[in-house]
């Protein structure tokens, strides 16, 4: 009887040992299997630089009309007038593609007095008025809310020392883009001493 009990205990101990070994083997196998099928995912985002260069353009001014006529009247006739650059088709086009954002101003002055083919002359100073403040400014590729027209004024004389402002950017912005400006009234008082003939003068615009 004692031997049977001893053998039973030994057999039960062996079974328990085998179960422990089997459990350890299954645990290690599970860990190894898990390690084999485990996948480490790559990053889900990445980035790259995209570059572009904006090259500098220029300031420019172009006249659709190479000439306009003030009108006619006899010696001593006051307020002879007409509309220069009459309508959009005849507009002055100003463009800023510099990319600087610094803005611009356009001025103009008469290079000389009215002179005829026979060299007769009529003065500009204090006799010729213009009205850019009343002109029409139309968008080209820019926002004309950023444009400030020059003041209506009389030319004090001729030459680079007597310019008047035609237009420029105001405090609303830098006035980049292109703009069409037209319908500028010009008005001249013909001197009583004027000789009856045809006269012309050169009006020079500068943008800077």
Q: What does the largest sheet look like?
A: 4 strands, antiparallel
- Determine the fraction of residues in helical runs and give it as a percent range: 10-25%
Integer average pLDDT: 88
Adjacency order of strands in the biggest sheet: 1-3-12-8
Strand content: 25-35%
Q: Give me the count of strands.
A: 15
The CATH architecture of the largest domain would be Sandwich
Order of helices and strands: HEEEEEEEEEEEEEEE
Distance between the termini: 123 Å
Q: Structural class of the helices, strands and pairings?
A: alpha+beta
Shape verdict: rod-shaped
Tally the structural domains: 2
CATH level-3 fold name of the largest domain: Immunoglobulin-like
CATH top-level class of the largest domain: Mainly Beta
What low-confidence regions span 5 or more consecutive residues with pLDDT below 50?
24-28
Radius of gyration: 45 Å
Tally of contiguous helical segments: 1
Organism: candidate division Kazan bacterium RIFCSPLOWO2_01_FULL_45_19
Protein name: WxL domain-containing protein
């Amino acid at each position: 009887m004692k031997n049977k009990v001893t053998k039973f205990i030994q057999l039960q101990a062996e079974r328990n040992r085998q179960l422990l070994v089997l459990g350890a083997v299954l645990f290690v196998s599970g860990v190894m299997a898990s390690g084999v099928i485990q996948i480490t995912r790559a990053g889900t985002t990445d980035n790259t630089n995209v570059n572009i260069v904006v090259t500098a353009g220029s300031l420019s001014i172009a006249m659709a009309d190479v000439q306009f006529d003030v009108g006619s009247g006899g010696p001593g006739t006051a307020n002879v007038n007409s509309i220069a650059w009459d309508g959009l088709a005849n507009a002055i086009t100003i463009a800023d593609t510099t990319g600087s954002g610094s803005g611009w101003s356009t001025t103009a002055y008469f290079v000389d007095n009215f002179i005829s083919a026979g060299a007769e002359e009529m003065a500009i100073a204090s006799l010729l008025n213009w009205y850019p403040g009343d002109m029409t400014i139309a968008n080209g590729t820019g926002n004309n809310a950023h444009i400030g027209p020059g003041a209506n004024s009389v030319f004090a004389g001729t030459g680079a020392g007597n310019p008047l402002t035609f237009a420029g950017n105001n405090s609303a912005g830098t006035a980049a883009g292109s703009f069409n400006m037209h319908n500028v009234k010009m008005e001249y008082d013909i001197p009583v001493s004027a000789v009856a003939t045809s006269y012309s003068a050169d009006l020079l615009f500068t943008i800077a």
